[in-house]
């Protein structure tokens, strides 16, 4: 099968406008004859569902939380990029495009990224019109700050809660459509299978998480906006419920999964403190605007510090190594996330890490507080400082924060073409659930941008092009394809409930997370990956032999919910390992130890790996089939990324 | 630490519930309250008992999904904190901790500690938005907003919709929640067009859902994990009275 990205012809800057003209339109009076299903109601899903409703389509939206306002987009802290150039500091659509392509280590699609940069401008307008309370200057105009991987201030923000405010904007637009009756909302409902009729996605099978009832929903198109799969690692910055089940089950029905090994490890998380820990908490990248990252210059000083013989304040300025500022003078502490994470790991591996485990570096605000005063720092980052204090019981105004990299965002996802359609006609993927815009590394403040771009400004145009070619007739939910999918879901649930083994779901999940972090985490090598593959297979066999799921299907059963998700992670983990093993190069969030420069920087192999690895499912335990989409760079030159 | 937990167990909406006592051992002070419940649940599972159902998701204090009435207080003894951000260092060894679901007629129990807060969504659907379609909006900087107003609107907008205000109120009133959204949108220039109908419709829906009346005692604001101010309730009252006095809501 040849993967057709459907990138429009013509110059980069004109592709999207030309495409918008070329797509087929659905007459407004006919839009009500089409039904669209949206799974997931974060930034991408809520904005898409609301906009489809505004256009006149009938929409059914689904989320597993009790309200769409709880989607994990809510937790994004720092900001959202847009090439507004309000600061007059040299920003432009092309510069945002260029920074994103470079930041992604040249493994993203040029046309998609350019479109993202173009519509970024409209997103801010849209959100402001909805009443999103962005930060303002005293003159009443919007304020900006800068983020990693960029040398301009293009990040719009709402204190440290930008994600929450943007999501509330999309949620309110969604509420308006729910009130109008154009969107029917199904909270506490989880998609467990995709239904394909005559080769087209025509519906989903879901479980009502309160009653356990298995239900089918039919539509003309299905949009998956289900977020990322970082929870495969168990410990991550994702919400506990974030999962890959909807996307993974679509993959098992034929949708290709692209670049699964591209996992972003975020450099500024609160370090792990104990065995019991259930999740990791991120400290916004925006903190690195003012915070300085350092560790002791020598292993000896670090050891004394860890033993408690000396305190942080005892370390003289001359004995501190501000390693990011030293190695990357141009970008300093604002180097992209992959670079900052890798360097934190390097200094900790050298034995210079701090904290009781030695797996932490300092993020120090002393200079900023001296320069601007504590009040100014509190105004910018106050809620983040409070959050840090609550979790660690330490006052970050008085002593530097301890941070360490953690699993954050997954750049891989379902393969989509320029229209955001997967290789299954009628099945779309948006936001973090698709793969297309971030390459091997996502720059800060660009996830929110992509989610809203896809939902507000891309899908509403492209989905019409597909629907316009489709007859209006609906597939009834008693169609054999629905019945068959329902039966498969019921059997799987029954099987999970009947094993009655000895090990808990969390126990398996933690074991999988350990394997993934140790062998497919911040650094990978061929030997480790081969070992991990065997370990995951063993663990998966054991899961299906020995997992313990209590209760029954016909009730609120959180253990059964988790068991379904972990069963899918156990399969997805193996694909991530396969993908990492296939990619014999280092790029962005994928660092293969065998491929690095003498300065420990990622060493790409553009000759052999300038492609998207799109994997086809061939059965559990079988080797997946690799399809390649060659990436063409016509507007930027592939160079070694340098932030020095 | 070793603790004794008294936990509300209820099979479903229609079954009666009861308090059940569980001892837990070896709790680290660095655990979050929910991690402590995770430990208990793992233990229950291994023994073949049903784990306790409770709501949680982001565990970063922002999604608003976690709830829990702990020792008679919404989100527990620490002020300005959600249950997921409450750490066991605030409890002492040997303590008995009582854990109940939110108690309000408008928040029926689904199971154990999980309650149905969909009434909040319906109140938002009644008018908690600005009617603007995607696209065709003015440039963002064409709507200048003085920083002081933007900051006030932001403060109101930080409500995480957790329901602690309702749980803390003796009348199970939703006034603090409703006032936060009404204030945010009434303060902003974008929110003016629907200012009157919004407050009328949201308050009407609040009453339909069965939330009680506000008596200005202020336990809602005292227990709010994100510090939504009582000033918002004052503003809601002003908004409501002025809307009613000049009603455009002809329905």
Automatic annotation (TrEMBL), chain A:
<dbReference type="GO" id="GO:0009061">
    <property type="term" value="P:anaerobic respiration"/>
</dbReference>
<feature type="active site" description="Proton acceptor">
    <location>
        <position position="337"/>
    </location>
</feature>
<dbReference type="Pfam" id="PF02910">
    <property type="entry name" value="Succ_DH_flav_C"/>
</dbReference>
<dbReference type="Pfam" id="PF00890">
    <property type="entry name" value="FAD_binding_2"/>
</dbReference>
<dbReference type="InterPro" id="IPR015939">
    <property type="entry name" value="Fum_Rdtase/Succ_DH_flav-like_C"/>
</dbReference>
<keyword id="KW-0813">Transport</keyword>
<dbReference type="InterPro" id="IPR003953">
    <property type="entry name" value="FAD-dep_OxRdtase_2_FAD-bd"/>
</dbReference>
<feature type="domain" description="FAD-dependent oxidoreductase 2 FAD-binding">
    <location>
        <begin position="35"/>
        <end position="448"/>
    </location>
</feature>
<dbReference type="InterPro" id="IPR027477">
    <property type="entry name" value="Succ_DH/fumarate_Rdtase_cat_sf"/>
</dbReference>
<keyword id="KW-0249">Electron transport</keyword>
<feature type="coiled-coil region">
    <location>
        <begin position="522"/>
        <end position="573"/>
    </location>
</feature>
<dbReference type="InterPro" id="IPR030664">
    <property type="entry name" value="SdhA/FrdA/AprA"/>
</dbReference>
<keyword id="KW-0472">Membrane</keyword>
<protein>
    <recommendedName>
        <fullName>succinate dehydrogenase</fullName>
        <ecNumber>1.3.5.1</ecNumber>
    </recommendedName>
</protein>
<keyword id="KW-1003">Cell membrane</keyword>
<dbReference type="InterPro" id="IPR011280">
    <property type="entry name" value="Succ_DH/Fum_Rdt_flav_su"/>
</dbReference>
<keyword id="KW-0274">FAD</keyword>
<keyword id="KW-0560">Oxidoreductase</keyword>
<dbReference type="GO" id="GO:0005886">
    <property type="term" value="C:plasma membrane"/>
</dbReference>
<comment type="similarity">
    <text>Belongs to the FAD-dependent oxidoreductase 2 family. FRD/SDH subfamily.</text>
</comment>
<dbReference type="GO" id="GO:0050660">
    <property type="term" value="F:flavin adenine dinucleotide binding"/>
</dbReference>
<dbReference type="GO" id="GO:0009055">
    <property type="term" value="F:electron transfer activity"/>
</dbReference>
From TrEMBL, chain B:
<dbReference type="InterPro" id="IPR036010">
    <property type="entry name" value="2Fe-2S_ferredoxin-like_sf"/>
</dbReference>
<dbReference type="InterPro" id="IPR006058">
    <property type="entry name" value="2Fe2S_fd_BS"/>
</dbReference>
<dbReference type="InterPro" id="IPR009051">
    <property type="entry name" value="Helical_ferredxn"/>
</dbReference>
<dbReference type="InterPro" id="IPR025192">
    <property type="entry name" value="Succ_DH/fum_Rdtase_N"/>
</dbReference>
<dbReference type="Pfam" id="PF13085">
    <property type="entry name" value="Fer2_3"/>
</dbReference>
<dbReference type="Pfam" id="PF13183">
    <property type="entry name" value="Fer4_8"/>
</dbReference>
<comment type="similarity">
    <text>Belongs to the succinate dehydrogenase/fumarate reductase iron-sulfur protein family.</text>
</comment>
<protein>
    <submittedName>
        <fullName>Succinate dehydrogenase/fumarate reductase iron-sulfur subunit</fullName>
    </submittedName>
</protein>
<dbReference type="InterPro" id="IPR050573">
    <property type="entry name" value="SDH/FRD_Iron-Sulfur"/>
</dbReference>
<dbReference type="InterPro" id="IPR017896">
    <property type="entry name" value="4Fe4S_Fe-S-bd"/>
</dbReference>
<dbReference type="InterPro" id="IPR012675">
    <property type="entry name" value="Beta-grasp_dom_sf"/>
</dbReference>
<dbReference type="GO" id="GO:0009060">
    <property type="term" value="P:aerobic respiration"/>
</dbReference>
<dbReference type="GO" id="GO:0051537">
    <property type="term" value="F:2 iron, 2 sulfur cluster binding"/>
</dbReference>
<dbReference type="GO" id="GO:0022904">
    <property type="term" value="P:respiratory electron transport chain"/>
</dbReference>
<feature type="domain" description="4Fe-4S ferredoxin-type">
    <location>
        <begin position="150"/>
        <end position="180"/>
    </location>
</feature>
<dbReference type="GO" id="GO:0009055">
    <property type="term" value="F:electron transfer activity"/>
</dbReference>
């Amino acid at each position: 099968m040849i993967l057709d990205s459907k990138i429009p012809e013509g110059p980069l800057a004109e592709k999207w406008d030309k495409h918008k003209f070329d797509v087929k339109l659905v007459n407004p009076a006919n839009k009500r004859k089409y039904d669209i299903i949206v799974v997931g109601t974060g930034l991408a899903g809520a904005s898409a569902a609301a906009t489809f409703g505004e256009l006149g389509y009938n929409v059914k939206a689904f989320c597993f939380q009790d309200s769409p306002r709880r989607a994990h987009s809510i937790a994004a802290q720092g900001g959202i990029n847009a090439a507004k150039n309000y600061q007059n500091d040299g920003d432009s659509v092309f510069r945002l495009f260029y920074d994103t392509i470079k930041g992604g280590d040249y493994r993203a699609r040029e046309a998609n990224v350019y479109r993202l940069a173009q519509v970024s401008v409209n997103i801010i307008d849209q959100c402001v019109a909805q009443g999103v309370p962005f930060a303002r200057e005293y003159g009443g105009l919007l304020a900006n700050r800068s983020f990693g991987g960029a040398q301009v201030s293009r990040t719009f923000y709402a204190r440290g809660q930008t994600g929450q405010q943007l999501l509330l904007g999309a949620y309110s637009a969604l509420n308006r459509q729910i009130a109008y009756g154009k969107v029917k909302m199904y909270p506490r409902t989880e998609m467990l299978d995709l239904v394909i009729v005559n080769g087209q996605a025509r519906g989903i099978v879901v479980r009502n998480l309160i009653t356990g009832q298995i239900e089918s929903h039919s539509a003309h198109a299905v949009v998956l906006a289900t977020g990322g799969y970082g929870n495969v690692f168990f410990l991550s910055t994702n919400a506990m419920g974030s999962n890959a089940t909807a996307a993974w089950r679509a993959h098992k029905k034929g949708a290709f999964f692209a670049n699964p090994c591209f996992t972003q490890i975020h450099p500024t998380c609160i370090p792990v403190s104990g065995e019991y820990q259930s999740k990791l908490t991120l400290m916004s990248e925006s903190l690195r605007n003012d915070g300085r990252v350092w560790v002791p210059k020598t292993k000896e000083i670090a050891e004394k510090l860890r033993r408690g013989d000396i305190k942080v304040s005892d370390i003289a300025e001359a004995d501190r190594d501000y390693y990011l500022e030293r190695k990357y003078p141009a970008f300093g502490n604002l180097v992209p996330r992959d670079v900052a994470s890798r360097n934190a790991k390097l200094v900790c591996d050298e034995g210079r890490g701090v904290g009781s485990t030695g797996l932490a570096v300092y993020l120090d605000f002393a200079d900023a507080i001296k320069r601007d005063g504590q009040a100014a720092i509190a105004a910018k980052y106050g809620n983040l400082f409070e959050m840090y204090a609550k979790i660690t019981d330490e006052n970050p105004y008085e002593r530097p924060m301890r941070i360490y990299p953690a699993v954050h965002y997954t750049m891989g996802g379902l393969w989509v073409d320029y229209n955001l359609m997967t290789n299954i006609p009628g099945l779309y993927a948006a936001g973090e659930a698709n793969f297309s815009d971030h390459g091997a590394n996502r720059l800060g403040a660009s996830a929110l941008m992509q989610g809203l771009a896809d939902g507000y400004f891309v899908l509403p145009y492209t989905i019409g092009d597909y629907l316009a070619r489709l007859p209006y007739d609906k597939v009834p939910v008693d169609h054999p394809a629905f019945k068959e999918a329902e039966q498969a879901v019921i059997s799987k649930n029954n099987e999970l409930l009947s094993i009655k083994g000895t090990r808990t779901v969390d126990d398996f999940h933690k074991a999988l997370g350990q394997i993934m972090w140790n062998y497919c985490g911040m650094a990978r090598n061929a030997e480790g990956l081969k070992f991990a593959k065997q370990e995951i297979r063993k663990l998966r066999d054991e899961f299906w032999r020995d997992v313990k799921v209590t209760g029954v299907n016909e009730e609120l059963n959180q253990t059964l919910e988790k068991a379904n998700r972990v069963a899918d992670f156990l399969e997805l983990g193996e694909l991530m390992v396969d993908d990492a093993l296939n990619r014999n190069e280092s790029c962005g969030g994928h660092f293969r130890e065998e491929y690095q420069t003498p300065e420990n920087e990622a060493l790409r192999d553009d000759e052999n790996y300038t492609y998207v690895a799109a994997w086809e499912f061939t059965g559990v335990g079988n080797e997946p089939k690799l399809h390649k989409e060659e990436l063409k760079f016509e507007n930027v030159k592939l160079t070694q990324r340098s932030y020095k | 630490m070793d603790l004794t937990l008294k936990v509300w167990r209820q099979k479903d909406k229609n079954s009666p519930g009861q308090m059940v006592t569980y001892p837990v051992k070896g709790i680290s002070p660095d655990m979050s309250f929910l991690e402590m419940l995770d430990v208990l649940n793992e233990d229950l599972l291994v023994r073949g008992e049903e784990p306790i159902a409770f709501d949680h998701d982001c565990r970063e204090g922002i999604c608003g999904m976690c709830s829990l009435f702990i020792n008679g207080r919404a989100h527990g003894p620490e002020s300005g904190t959600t249950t997921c951000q409450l750490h066991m260092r605030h409890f002492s060894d040997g303590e008995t901790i009582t854990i109940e679901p939110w108690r309000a007629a408008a928040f029926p129990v689904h199971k154990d500690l999980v309650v149905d807060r969909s009434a909040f969504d319906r109140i938002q659907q009644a008018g908690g938005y600005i009617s603007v379609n995607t696209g065709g909006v003015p440039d963002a900087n064409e709507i200048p907003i003085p920083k002081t107003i933007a900051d006030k609107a932001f403060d109101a907008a930080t409500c995480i919709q957790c329901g602690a205000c309702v749980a803390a109120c003796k009348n199970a009133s939703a006034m603090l929640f409703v006032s936060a959204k009404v204030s945010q949108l009434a303060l902003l220039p974008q929110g003016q067009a629907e200012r009157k109908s919004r407050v009328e419709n949201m308050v009407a829906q609040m009453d339909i859902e069965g939330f009680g009346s506000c008596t200005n005692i202020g336990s809602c604001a005292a227990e709010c994990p994100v510090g939504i101010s009582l000033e918002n309730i004052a503003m809601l009252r002003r908004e409501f009275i002025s809307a009613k006095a000049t009603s455009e809501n002809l329905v």
